[in-house]
Amino acid sequence: MGAVTAGTRAVGLDIGGTKTHGVVLADDGSILAQVRKSTRPGADGVVDTAARVFAALGREVGGQGHLTGPVGVGVPGLVDVARGTLRHAVNLDVNGDDLPLRDLLAERLGVPVLLENDVNAATLAARALVDADDVVYLSVGTGLAAGLVLDGRLRRGEHGAAGEIGHLPVDPSGAVCGCGQVGCLETIASGRALAEAWPTPDGPPAADLFAAAAAGDVKAVAVRDRFCWGVANAVRALCLTIDPERIVLGGGVSEVGEPLHEQVVLQLRALGEGSAFLASLGLADRLSMVPLHYPVAAVGAALVAAG
């Protein structure tokens, strides 16, 4: 992936509703250190968690004094990059008025902070992985969202909502989405939807679902196929509206690995069976996945810091 400026170390924090993942990139862009800690919700909890992860990263690389450059921070929700504010980050229990998160973090960490939406940050790392200028990163995590790099530039949109593919309605008789619409893709193809359709007492429901489907469980096959149909529809919608060179699949559910890729490819090919036009676009051939266990959002946040 793209190298960080010689002699510097870039720090990235991916603040999620469950965990905060921090990385330090060496000057060649490789991961020098990484730390994960559980995220404490609320504005104070988010700042405190980020501070603990930052301090732990400093210890990993030989003392916090080594981390003096800017820190890139990726967070869910609507981010105003210019003002450094965050709103509607429901998973972090940050609601209401704009939260000046950039300034709060900079004051606590003692270094400059650059704030970015987490999916947008991950998209920068995905772009570096595939080395292309037109890239969509499709994140299948708790929700469903996409990040867009077009002609080498990150596209955020007028209201910071570019890539909110999860809130595209596809089923008028479907479930009510958290956004207030009905039958959104996120109600079909997201970690939350999958957990509701295939609840498990412990362990990741996605891994359990795909294992049960591979073993021939009829119900599991039906749930898996509907889920992958939803992901494939997100890919189709993105390709028809943006026509990117590459689409990279990531997010927590992607930890299932190659079985997820295989099933989404099958659904994409099935969508093209009745349409020579759609088949000619080669949707499946554009799709790849983030390598297993690769901290794409945290690395992307570090790339935000590196400029």
UniProtKB/TrEMBL annotation:
It comes from the Bacteria. It holds the Pfam family ROK. InterPro entries: ATPase_NBD, ROK. PANTHER family: BIFUNCTIONAL UDP-N-ACETYLGLUCOSAMINE 2-EPIMERASE_N-ACETYLMANNOSAMINE KINASE, ROK (REPRESSOR, ORF, KINASE) FAMILY. Belongs to the ROK (NagC/XylR) family. This is ROK family protein. It comes from Nocardioides glacieisoli.
